[in-house]
Specification:
It is built from 17 helices and 8 strands. It has an 8-stranded mixed sheet with strand order 3-4-2-5-1-6-7-8, sandwiched between helices. The protein starts with 6 loop residues before the first helix and ends with a helix.
């Protein structure tokens, strides 16, 4: 029988790792630990978070993270870097990269409509995270880029972001807004009122003139944005990109992870590894029922109380394994890595190192 692959084997052939899962399951910690392990293996690693919480910065011993990678010093033969995505700054940089000249950059960055959508429009954060991933992989010479994605259902938007941008550029409404002359103004009045009313609720104020001015200023940049989106999508689907699904053994989070695994499969993407955090130990191979009966036999004694406590732990551990059984089968043959429930939260490099020890043992 062929031995099951390990997380080490999966990651050794990967240059991009997307850590996906619902919130509160240790996704940020897992991502940072994977990047640290890469640095220990001699790779130039960077971990990216788009979670607004500062847990990653705290664990890495930094005052805070910015949109520019910060180097983390430590005992590794490679390099470890970290950053927190700034959606608007990344969007600004993308505009500057694709603009014809400085004048076009100024017109777009100074436009009120752009200033609102660059940080607030639905899907913008997810696409800019993909843009940052591409930049780090293709232009910054990192050997390993590890991304801590948004919670599960938002992460699906994260994966679909490149396609969504291409669909927008092909949309009839966009083509109308880009049509020169007075005809497009009449078309806006007839065909785009519902769209602009929706945008107005998000950004507030009179956005029609600003929106039209923005799209006029955007003219000539579509090819650059479209090409970049296609490149990002190709990178996501490349063999060197690994999807690590992170969960906890609770029934609700296992359900979310199962949903995510199914959605990935619908898109032709396989889960590369499943990491389950905060698992309770089994304390032997005995069945909870047998241990409970032993506790009854010794009822009233100190040993009886200990057996009762052991039965409780065995029952919790067995319940967790029952929750995981279907999910593990769904992602097979991907390795399933169990990380035990630790006595303290991870808040420094030593804690990340301990997690990495469980991930890659």
């Amino acid at each position: 029988m062929t031995p099951a692959p390990t997380l080490e084997a999966v990651l050794s052939g990967s240059s991009i790792v997307l850590c996906c899962g619902t919130g509160g399951v240790g996704k940020t910690t897992t991502a940072a630990s994977i990047a640290m392990h890469g640095a220990r293996a001699g790779r130039r690693s960077v971990v990216v978070t788009i979670d607004p919480a500062k847990r990653l910065a705290d664990a890495l011993g930094l005052e805070g993270l910015t949109n520019t990678p910060s180097r983390i010093e430590g005992e590794w033969s490679g390099e470890l870097w970290a950053l927190m995505l700034d959606t608007k700054t990344t969007f600004d940089e993308l505009v500057a990269r694709n603009a014809v000249d400085a004048s076009q950059v100024d017109r777009i960055l100074g436009n009120r409509f752009y200033r609102n959508i660059s940080g607030r429009l639905s899907g913008t954060q997810e696409y800019m995270a993909m843009e940052k991933l591409y930049e780090l992989h293709e232009e910054s010479q990192f050997d390993l880029v590890v991304v801590d994605t948004p919670p599960t259902r938002n992460a699906l938007d994260f994966l679909d972001a490149p396609r969504r941008l291409t669909r927008f550029l092909d949309h009839r409404l966009y083509r109308i807004l880009m049509t020169p002359g007075r005809a497009y103004v009449r078309a806006v009045n007839v065909a785009a009122q519902a769209f602009l009313r929706t945008v107005s609720k998000v950004v507030g104020g009179d956005v029609i003139d600003d929106a039209i001015a923005f799209f006029q200023a955007f003219e000539g940049m579509e090819a650059g944005f479209r090409d970049r989106a296609e490149r990002v999508l190709h990178l996501l689907l490349a063999p060197e990109t690994a999807f690590v699904l992170v969960a906890s053994p609770r029934g609700d989070t296992v359900g979310e992870a199962s949903y995510f695994a199914d959605r990935l499969a619908e898109g032709g993407i396989s889960v590369s590894a499943l990491v389950v955090n905060r698992m309770h130990p089994h304390f032997g191979t005995g069945r909870p029922e047998a241990t409970r009966e032993r506790a009854r036999t010794l009822s009233g004694s100190d040993l009886g109380e200990l057996y009762a406590n052991l039965a409780d732990f065995q029952l919790v551990a067995a319940s967790e394994e029952d929750h995981l059984a279907g999910l593990a089968g769904r992602v097979a043959p991907a390795p399933v890595v169990r990380v035990p429930f630790l006595t303290t939260d991870v808040h420094d490099l030593d804690g990340l190192d301990e997690i990495a020890g469980h991930l890659f043992r």
